Amino acid sequence: MRTPMHTETDPEGARHDLRHHGDAEVRDDGAALVDLAVNVRAGTPPDWLRSRIADSLTGLAAYPDGRRARAAVAARHGLPVDRVLLTAGAAEAFVLLARALKVRRPAVVHPQFTEPEAALRDAGHTVDRVLLRAEDGFRLDPAAVPEDADLVVVGNPTNPTSVLHPAASIARLARPGRMLVVDEAFMDAVPGEREALAGRTDVPGLVVLRSLTKTWGLAGLRIGYVLAAPETIADLERAQPLWPVSTPALAAAEACVSPLALAEAADAADRVAADRAHLVAGLKEFAPDGLTVAEPAEGPFVLVRVPRATAVRRHLRTLGFAVRRGDTFPGLGEEWLRLAVRDRTTVNHFLQALDRALTLADR
């Protein structure tokens, strides 16, 4: 018999710093560290994208006009324009959802990106947490979500577990009168974007969030978008300030959904998958030290459980590597670390440092 997932209501958000993100691991002395804490693809943005963004700077005297970028995103997903809203990164979309939608009982499936819950709490909501279990492989059981939840948030693939939930399982969460928010910020890093719900119009209450900052290295530019029913888009748009997305970000959005960019992203996803396999294989060599990998990993990052993880993370910093602590994610403890996937050379150097860090932590 399946062990049921745990659901908890925690009005204070106790024990977890929901505002801690990977950039905090490299903010002060990041120049001296190899960054495995932030999930932005290394070596980005590419030169052609930098050029497109630079060209947009000649138009900064005019107010931003998002019509072309919005139409381009709509075309990329085969949707009408009124089903698309451009946002200043996916983080803005979470704030808009929390403030603009009239919900009574929101539920967030954890472990996952913590900004959705933080935004809901800031908007005055009490949040139910559905905690997925490591012993179940952090897999989603739709029956574990409270039946009367009228807004459900789930990531796919999920940050930080790297689990890719079947689209059919997520779609089973849809109900009349419920908003089903699926964070697909890392879906373009999955080869073929299998299990994507972006572009679907047959799932009632579906809201899909996408980010262009991860694959294209645009975290500092802030660009993402929402796909949803026209009435939901209209509600969110009314909650936005005027001109919320800058002209350079609009230029980037239009460029990143072009056919050539999509082909480049698909190639990058294949490389990430190969590099991730190399990283996972190397991590498994440390099984005698008690290290375990959450599998199967499908995103551009890997979640690991390691004894004395706090000490290991500290020693890794002294050896030149920043990794993401896991204890700020509800459902995880301080024995968890998240590692961004990097190229094989970087991974090999990291694995050598990890060997040393584990030895030092044992002393």
UniProtKB/TrEMBL annotation:
Gene3D superfamilies: Aspartate Aminotransferase, domain 1, Type I PLP-dependent aspartate aminotransferase-like (Major domain)
Molecular functions per Gene Ontology: transaminase activity
Name of the protein: Aminotransferase
Aminotransferase class I/classII large domain boundaries: 34-354
PANTHER family linked to this entry: HISTIDINOL-PHOSPHATE AMINOTRANSFERASE-RELATED, THREONINE-PHOSPHATE DECARBOXYLASE
Domain of life per record: Bacteria
Pfam family name, one: Aminotran_1_2
